[in-house]
Write a structure and sequence with these properties.
alpha/beta; Rossmann fold; N-(1-d-carboxylethyl)-l-norvaline Dehydrogenase, domain 2; Single alpha-helices involved in coiled-coils or other helix-helix interfaces; 3 domains; eight-stranded mixed β-sheet; 52% helix
């Protein structure tokens, strides 16, 4: 028997993807560098299924039907390059190597070109959904060498999550690292979503003094409306869980120092490189960095006192204001993510289908949410949409939420409650909606000290001018450029 596809890497995601493939009728070869894991898997979870265990790379490659399809589910970075080098002597032109890990898109760009020079097809596939998604249906975002798509499409779309009409949450994203780029942006949006939900929780607790059980009921109710999403759903569940050791609410015994694996940082750094204002996503990353300074924060808490304000307003009205602020902030975070993808597509010459990307995120992945259907509808209506905030549906939501959003951020400031994502999203919105910003002064300052030039409001764009501000600087100016 020959395998339809082979998977290297038997950690949780690798094992579950193999089981998912086998459950859809595919025969899968499994290999792991530590061969004991292969034996345990074959004798355990894989027993009785169309899964073949290989104990060497040579045996593994020999099990695969041509063109061979090899999927790597291993740690991103040097391990991927090392495994590719080990595979190269064993593969032949037309074979396909798939990286299903959280690789940086720039590495996928490089690997696609490197393998193409050797006659091999490379696919960088972002996979989202965690271990449950991998087993029952993840969101898959493949990119790379387009010639590979016809060969991997039947498998990927069979194992992917499905929306209500049966459409798979998997489609071809674009060339080279486009798939991993979209997955990176997905993860950046995920950072923003999680931080904003935590801020809503913090406001309800710190300002209104609600218990975890009461907040859980609010989140469960929110999950029945516009905010219906996986992260809202699990938050309601988390807030009801008791710690078996102490009997306390489990969330209260978890240390407030968040970890991160780097994909949110990649999103923020890439946004800076491209010049895309993804400030809310960046604030969510910085929020985790600040949370990690636990000992310093404890020391600072003994030195500084915050405000002692007591909430005097309508408590139920404030709960609704927090809901509206959360939704408006969430829209801005997604708008930033899509803006980053649009600017990257221009930078790298990719043609991205933004409505299709929204569909890929509709089920299976961590940020799956009802309002992704509205994003798909927005791009179906206008594929050239520059920013989600300019779509009629989202513009109406933001406009109607403005007063509540501002009230929530104001209340947070007056009560000393930390809400970096809410505040940043509002600042992004206020900047984006402003025809005139104060950066004319920044540009004047740059020209004053560095002769960096400026454009004028009464002249066409693209013409640059320099002023001898002090009378001593002369007429020589710096070249005009943007990083």
């Amino acid at each position: 028997m020959q395998a339809d596809i082979g998977v290297i890497g038997l950690a949780v995601m690798g094992e579950n993807l193999i089981l998912n493939m086998a459950s859809k009728g595919f025969t899968v070869a499994a290999y792991n560098r530590t061969t004991q894991k292969v034996r345990e898997f074959i004798e355990g979870r894989a027993a009785g299924k169309n899964i073949l265990g290989a104990y060497s790379l040579e045996e593994f490659v020999g099990m695969l039907e041509r063109p061979r399809k090899v999927m790597l589910m291993i740690k991103a970075g040097s391990a991927v390059d090392a495994t590719i080098e080990q595979l190269l002597p064993l593969l032949e032109p037309g074979d396909i190597v798939i990286d299903g890990g959280n690789s940086h898109y720039a590495d996928t760009n490089r690997r696609t070109r490197y393998l193409a020079e050797r006659g091999l097809l490379f696919v960088g596939a972002g996979v989202s959904g965690g271990e449950e998604g991998a087993l029952h249906g993840p969101s898959i975002m493949p990119g790379g060498n387009p010639a590979a798509w016809e060969h991997v499409k039947p498998i990927f779309q069979a194992i992917a999550a499905k929306v209500a009409d049966g459409s798979p949450c998997c489609d071809w994203v674009g060339p080279e690292g486009a798939g991993h780029f979209v997955k990176m942006v997905h993860n950046g949006i995920e950072y923003g979503d999680m931080q904003m939900i935590a801020e809503a929780y913090s406001l309800l607790r710190a300002v209104l003094g609600l218990s975890n059980a009461e907040i859980a009921e609010i989140f469960a109710r929110w999950n029945q409306g516009e905010l219906d999403s996986y992260l809202i759903e699990i938050t309601a569940d988390i807030l009801t869980k008791k710690d078996e050791e102490t009997g306390k609410d489990l969330v209260d015994v978890i240390l407030d120092a968040a970890g991160q694996k780097g994909t949110g940082k990649w999103t923020s750094v890439t946004a800076l490189d491209i010049g895309s204002p993804s400030s809310t996503i960046a604030e969510a990353v910085f929020a985790r960095c600040l949370s990690a300074l636990k000992d310093e924060r404890v020391t600072a808490s003994r030195i500084f006192e915050g405000p002692k304000a007591e909430f005097q307003g309508d408590r139920q009205a404030f709960v609704e204001q927090v809901r509206q602020a959360l939704y408006a902030s969430k829209i801005c975070s997604y708008a930033q993510g899509y803006q980053l993808m649009r600017m990257a597509a221009q930078e790298f010459g990719w043609e991205l289908d933004y409505g299709s990307i929204a569909l890929m995120w509709r089920e299976g992945c961590i940020i799956r949410a009802r309002f992704l259907e509205n994003i798909k509808a927005a791009y179906d209506k206008n594929p050239q949409l520059q920013n989600l905030l300019l779509d009629d549906y989202f513009a109406r939501i933001i406009q109607n939420s403005q007063a509540a959003w501002r009230q929530v951020v104001t209340t947070a400031v007056l009560h000393g409650v930390w809400t970096p994502a809410f505040s940043s999203a509002l600042a992004y919105f206020d900047g984006y909606r402003s025809a005139t910003l104060s950066t004319n002064l920044v540009q004047a300052q740059r020209d004053y000290f560095g002769a960096h030039t400026y454009e004028r409001t009464d002249r066409p764009r693209g013409q640059f001018f320099h002023t001898n501000w002090t009378g001593r600087g002369g007429k020589t100016s710096s070249s005009s450029y943007n990083v």
